[in-house]
Write a structure and sequence with these properties.
Layout (H helix, E strand, L loop, with lengths): L1 H6 L3 H14 L4 H13 L3 H12 L4 H17 L3 H14 L4 H14 L3 H14 L3 H17 L3 H13 L6 H10 L4
Helix pairs in contact: 2-3, 3-4, 3-5, 4-5, 5-6, 6-7, 7-8, 7-9, 8-9, 9-10, 9-11, 10-11
Length: about 180
Amino acid sequence: MTRTRGRAGDLDEAEAAYRACLDLRPDDPWPLLGLGWVAVEREDHVAASPYLLRAVDAGDVKTEGYAAMLLGAPAKAARDLGEALRWYERAFTADDRHAPLAMGHLGELHYWLGERAGARHWYERMLEVTDLPELVAEACCRLGEMAAADGDAARAAKHLERAAGTGDPAFAGRARELLGQLPRN
């Protein structure tokens, strides 16, 4: 019920339900995660943090992974590489279901910071664990862009063709544009 309320956009009802669950089962990490999630949805990371920190340390790998992902987001937004690494690595170490997205976030953060070696590392690792088109498109577009900047047209073309082939609205067009700029042999 709490997740249904939250998904329907009724955060007040979801919060009340999570609080009632927490009152009944104070050691259950799921209501902690839920209260943290509600605060994140309200864009109140300060209020979310205590709940998420308790959820991440509660001993349940599923809530640990989700809570760590939520803790990584404000670190990424603040361009705090150390904190982002801490939380995203913890997320995929706890539960490998988070690996593709966590690695994508780390690749993107390194990319934003201009740290190409880190961006390559995380995007390449992500490509080893997922074939989700939106994630593949981002990773391959950026890997192709970096390869082109390094003068490696063959590697750039390989990545950019893969990105373009996803049809992803955010990156396929950019990949096609970059492909058109590559030198022809």
